[in-house]
Structures are given as C-alpha cells and as structure tokens.
Specification:
The chain is built from nine helices and seven strands. It has 236 residues and is of the alpha+beta class. The strands form two sheets. A five-stranded mixed sheet has the order 4-3-7-6-5, with helices on one face. A two-stranded antiparallel ribbon has the order 1-2. Helix 5 (51-96) packs antiparallel against helix 6 and helix 5 runs parallel beside helix 9. The protein is elongated and about 90 Å long. It starts with a helix and ends with a helix.
C-alpha cells in the first residue's frame, strides 16, 4: 500500500463518525436546511422519501403510540373510579350489618352484583378467642385437614390470585368447585383469629398472579375489621 493510499484511508470518514457528529451537533441542519430535501431515506414498505417526510412519519408514529398509551391510562382511571364507587357501596353496606350473618349475606350479594364474582366463600379458624359464628360450615377446627391446602397463604398473610387447585376449590366451594377457574384468596386477621376470604370466577383470566391487589387487600381489611367490631360488641 502506497503512502498516498494510507493517507486517503486515514482521511475517510466512517458512518459512525458522521452519526456521532450529528448527535453532538443538533443544530447542523438548521445551518444547512437545503440538505434536508436532498437526503433520501428508504421506507420499510419500500420506496424512497426525503428526510423531512421520514421525520414526519416518525412523529406520527410516536403520536399514535402516545395516544394509545393515554387511552389506556384513561381506561384504567375510569375502571378504578368505578371500582372505588363499588367499594364505597360495600363499605356502607358492611357498616350497616348488625351481625355476622348480615356480613356474610352482604358480601354474597355485593361481590356478585358489584364485583362480578361468580362464587364467594369465607372460613374462620376456630380458636380460644374465636368469633361466635352461628353458621357451622364457616368455621374450621384448628386441626382441620382443609387448612393444609391454605397453609402458605395463612402463614404469609399474603393474597394469592390465580388458578386454585381442585382441593382448594373443593374445600371452599363444595359442589361448585369444578366451575371455579380462577380465584382470589385473601387471608383475614380478626383480632387473634385467622380467617380466609375467597372470591371465585368462571373466567380463568379474572384473577391472575400478576394482577394488582390494592382493592382486594382493602376488601380483606374491611371485612376483618367489621367482624372484629361485631365480636367486641357482642362481648361488651
């Protein structure tokens, strides 16, 4: 290779150097606007357009994406607003409940009517300081075999959503177990007594492991507090 060829190669500008220069000089095309119309860019669909037209196309794409994101956020906001309204209804109804039976009846009605739940179940674990519950099917003894199916949930006190095992569904929903394709298991802490609130659905996508649980957690706290207050009222 001759000295002249070596010198020519050293003076050649690479595409990367051009890119870096343009990134470092955002006013370049303001100084040389005539270049915008002369630069041609290939489109993904074929054909060639000016750089200006390509920029406009990119801006339109970004605008469409931003619009879709905004529409998604607005839809979530409307859904949350409606859910908040239903939570207010449920809160008022639970406050009006005068006994444990009223709490269960209110949950059964409101969860089905306002929250689209297909199934509802609640279980209380018997203890020395247990809530006096007149509905025998609701109370599980400390050594009940069914407790093993929910041990992790009760020990962690964390909500679990998703597809229940057949044993879990059968323990809570009895003969309707085969129709439950997704469920939310909400651990309850009623003073010193443990419990479990379960909401089931025929829709496999209704309750899933990655869903938000803010409102469900609030629901569990609300039910536990109301049951605890009824327990204290009865003792007093």
């Amino acid at each position: 290779m001759t000295d002249q060829q070596t010198l020519q190669q050293s003076l050649e500008i690479t595409a990367e150097q051009v890119r870096d220069y343009l990134l470092a000089s955002p006013d370049f095309f303001n100084e040389y606007p005539e270049l915008l119309e002369s630069i041609q860019v290939k489109e993904q669909r074929g054909g060639v357009v000016s750089l200006t037209m390509r920029q406009l196309a990119l801006l339109r794409d970004k605008n469409e994406k931003s619009q879709k994101q905004l529409e998604g956020l607005l839809a979530i906001a409307r859904e949350n607003d409606a859910l908040f309204g239903r939570m207010q209804q449920l809160t008022t109804a639970l406050i009006d409940a005068r006994c444990v039976e009223d709490v269960f009846a209110t949950l059964d009605d409101m969860l089905r009517e306002c929250f689209g739940a297909d199934f509802f179940a609640i279980r209380l674990i018997d203890s020395d300081d247990a809530l006096d519950c007149p509905i025998s099917d609701v109370v599980w003894a400390k050594d009940a075999a069914e407790l093993e199916y929910f041990k992790r949930i009760l020990d962690s006190q964390k909500i679990k959503c998703g597809l229940p095992t057949h044993a879990q569904a059968e323990a809570l929903f009895n003969e309707q177990a085969s129709d439950v394709h997704s469920a939310a298991f909400i651990p309850l802490k009623i003073d010193q007594q443990d419990g479990l609130l379960a909401i089931g659905s025929k829709d496999s996508d209704r309750f899933h492991p990655t869903m938000g649980t803010l409102f469900i957690a609030h629901l569990g706290q609300l039910v536990a507090k109301r049951l605890a207050s009824l327990q204290q009222t009865k003792k007093g």
